[in-house]
Amino acid sequence: MSTTARHPLGTDRVPVGPGMSMFDPMFIGIDEFGQHVSLDIVFHNLLTAGEPGAGKSGLLNNVAATAALCDNTRLVLFDGKWVELGPYIDIADEFVGDDIEKGLSILRRLLTVARNRYLWLLANRRRKIAREDNLSTIVTIIDELAMYLKVLGTKEQQAEFESLLRGLVSIGRACGMPVVAATQRPSWDIIAASLRDLFGYRCAFRCTTVGSSDVILGSGWADLGYSASDIDMENRGAAWLLGEGTVPKRIKVAYLTDADIYAIADYAAWLRRPNHGTPANFTVPAARLDWEMAA
Ligand SMILES: Nc1ncnc2c1ncn2[C@@H]1O[C@H](COP(=O)(O)OP(=O)(O)OP(=O)(O)O)[C@@H](O)[C@H]1O
What is the total count of domains within the chain? Predict the structure, then answer.
């Protein structure tokens, strides 16, 4: 883990999760040879799916817990069931439960932030953000996509949700705003191929059919022997992980118990408490706050 992260305010604050940065590789488990598997989430979206109880929440929790402990990282959480990402509710910039209208409003805001960031990049003659920019990473995590695309709200709201999500997944990753999404219904009506292909990482936990495995990984992988329908029912947390330009890799996701998750979330909330490590007489410059609001 890096120890170079500095707080954007340039003060001697103790950074959140001392030294942890979203720009470092994010550990999520091991592969079949026992080697560590890490993701580069800042610049990649992650889509995960599998039948109920296959272990998706374990992966989402690895991402959420790491992000919660990282310096200069903000969480935007969507969880129609409330309890999967609920432990992080106190440290999330926004938490959307089963209110789709709130979800739409937050996705619109995220797209505005992404647009502002691109204008900033353009003004600085750049195409993507870097660690040194000290721009916060905004990680959007959606547990159970199907809730927002098929269950909650009207057909119009669901269609708008999909279109805004598609926008964020398309443009977020180069400006430090990755999306991590999960569903237990890997079918074409939930994840169209054109949406799936915008996710650089795809992780298929056990699926009931070869077809649903291909919905996540991409057509043709099952024929080549990479099918999540072959994963043993009892082997929870096992999955096929596909990264850009690679073949799927068999992994076992690191497991966090409920007690672990709440302990990490509580620790992250403690680290992120207002004025943590800030001298009593220090005030945040107003201009800096305005800038952070927009970016
Ligand atoms: N990596 C893992 N190692 C060991 N056991 C695991 C792992 N992941 C999950 N499990 C076991 O499987 C159970 C279900 O896992 P989890 O809640 O992550 O599944 P899920 O796919 O998210 O289910 P749902 O779609 O219903 O939310 C866990 O309570 C745990 O007992």
Answer: 1
Nearest to 162 by CA among 178, 148, 142: 148
The ipTM is 0.94
pLDDT in tens, 16-57: 556 789 999 999 999 999 999 999 999 999 999 999 999 999
Domain extent, residue 263, equals 26-294
CA 159/CA 151 separation, integer angstroms: 12
Q: Is 158 in the pocket of ligand 1 (CB under 6 A)?
A: no
Of the candidates 274, 247, 237, 245, the residue with the CA atom closest to the CA atom of residue 91: 274
Length of the chain: 295
Here the tokens at position 235 are 């082997």
Is the CB of 80 within 6 Å of ligand 1? no
CATH number for the domain harbouring residue 240: 3.40.50.300
Q: Which ligand 1 atom is the nearest neighbour of the CA of 205?
A: 21
- Answer yes or no: is 15 within a domain: no
